[in-house]
Amino acid sequence: MILTMISAIPILKKSGANTPHGSFSKWKTNEQQELIEGLLSSEGVGFLVGVPDSGKSTLGLKIATAIAKGDREVLNLLLHTNHQRVLIVRTEDQEVATKFVLKKILKGEDVVTKEALSRIDFVFTGMLSPDEILSKVRAKLKKHRYDLVLLDAYGDLFSRKDSNSNSETRKFLAPYYALASQYHCLLLFTHHLNKSGYDEKPAQRYIQGASALTQKSRICIQLFKAKDEPNKRYLCVLKGNYLSSQYKDNAIQLHFDDCIFKPTGVIKSIEEFGQKPEEASGKSGGGKPDGDKKRKAFESNRNYDELFDPGESLLHYEELVERGMEFWDKSESAIKRDIRQRLASGHLKRNEEGLYFSTQHLLEDMIPDDGLDPDQRTVVDLAPATFGNQAPAGSGPEMPAPDSAMPDAQTSNNLDAVSGIAIEANASGTTEAEANPAIEPDDGNALPSSIE
Questions:
Q1: Residues 6 or more apart from 363 whose CB is under 8 A from it?
Q2: Model pLDDT for residues 36-51, shown as the tens digit of each residue
Q3: Same domain for 206 and 294
Q4: What secondary structure letter does DSSP report for 197?
Q5: How many domains does the chain have?
Q6: Residue 403 has pLDDT above 70, yes or no
Q7: What pLDDT is attached to residue 276?
Q8: Closest by CA position to 38, among listed 88, 79, 87
Q9: Rounded distance between C-alpha atoms, residue 248 and residue 219, angstroms
Q10: Residues 144 and 248 in one domain
Q11: The pLDDT value given to residue 255
């Protein structure tokens, strides 16, 4: 059957038979699907996440240097490049700090030529707004072809009102996906974890923001910092479309010291992270299997109200299952089984169209907008009195407050040059291209031709 399928392709090509997306003859099947084998795809939008001071930005610079040099490997993983060029957007560190870190990284490299360094372009954001930064990225992509666009960091670039809203997150990411598709490159954001996940086993649910962030991304990797190993980092794949499970179930150990990453050759199971010594051996403190402990915690603490965005009252079954899998890090069968149980208990409801809603959202819709304090009203609880250890349905979860304002991009001194790094902005904070629309902007700053 496989031979039949292969032999049919040239026939379709010669006859000009078209699919809804064009003829097979125009499909480029010989291009690499991975930028870094088993780690990063060659196209799309992805996330590199971790706790503060884990080395996310430094790792990004390490990968960028390898790409620009044309290396065939990075971190002992095969590296496939088409253009040997990288664009780096820096919102947290500006010119001086970037050069300081880069000089340290280069000490760990064998040979770095001026030509290679010239293939790393920078956009230092200064006081630019998120929309202005996106415009600069778009302009750079029109001028050059990149293997990787590193966007450091997501929190400063997010331009919508509520980062915990799925709809707002999808709207924000849409233009970045369009750029990745148009210019066939990977756009990789660095991002942070919630504090609750700092010492826990790597999982998607600990990533700050809405679940749509990981739902939409093609790749998501975490740089894990173990408390008892100060000079060790573990690179884990939290999500990787088309990647083998061996990459998702294990982590690569890296030695990290003075801004230099070196692979140790050690591979560690992700299941070993975030556990106490007695739990790592398969037993909890009470002598029960760790799996039983986790299952009981899931059964007693789950609250499907948490899967709904603010103002969102209805969800399709598939969306509810997907959000539950990511939020609780459970299998599809476990979430589907739990949904059936929650429907039977009355905590979840389903309307005639097959859309699901929670009893808490139903109660919120019934409360009149009369300006009264909630404590002054009497609300009839339509849900059963108890749901295991759940809070009464009338109380509901405390929803996160929308961000009141976007964090400002950090200020740049706008010097004419910082040790060889040219700065675009003039003293007024505007570039020549911005002052004169007729000039096509050359956004970003090429790395200096020499490192002093």
A1: 379, 381, 382, 393, 394, 396
A2: 999 999 999 999 999 9
A3: no
A4: G
A5: 2
A6: no
A7: 46
A8: 79
A9: 11
A10: yes
A11: 96
Query: Of 367, 399, 427, which residue sits at a domain end?
Result: 367
Instruction: Identify whether residues 269 and 296 lie together within a single domain.
Output: no
**Is 392 or 114 the better-scoring residue by pLDDT?**
114
Q: How far apart are the first and last CA of the chain?
A: 61
Is 407 inside any structural domain? no
CB proximity list for 391: less than 8 A, separation 6 or greater: 303
Tell whether 170 and 293 lie within a shared domain. Answer: no
Per the CB < 8 A criterion, the answer to whether 290 and 275 are in contact is yes
The CATH number of whichever domain residue 182 belongs to comes to 3.40.50.300
Q: What sign results for the dihedral spanned by CA atoms 47, 51, 52, 56?
A: negative
Decide if pLDDT at 237 tops 90: yes
Q: Are residues 166 and 293 in the same domain?
A: no
DSSP symbol at 391: P
Which structural domain, as residue segments, surrounds residue 341? 289-367
Backbone angles phi, psi at 72, to 5 degrees: -95, -10
Count of beta carbons in the 10 Å neighbourhood of residue 267: 13
Question: How sure is the predictor about 248, in pLDDT bands with cuts at 50, 70 and 90?
Answer: confident
Flag whether 144 is in a domain. yes
Tokens 């009355």 correspond to 346
Residue 170, C-beta contacts closer than 8 angstroms, at least 6 positions apart: 212, 216
76: closest CA among 94, 61, 86, 62? Answer: 62
Helix/strand/coil percent split, the chain, to 5:
35, 20, 45
Same domain, 218 and 256: yes
CA torsion 119→125→126→129, rounded to 10°? Answer: 160
Domain with residue 337: its CATH number is: 1.10.10.10
Q: How many residues does this entry show for the chain?
A: 452
Tokens 């065939």 -> residue:
72
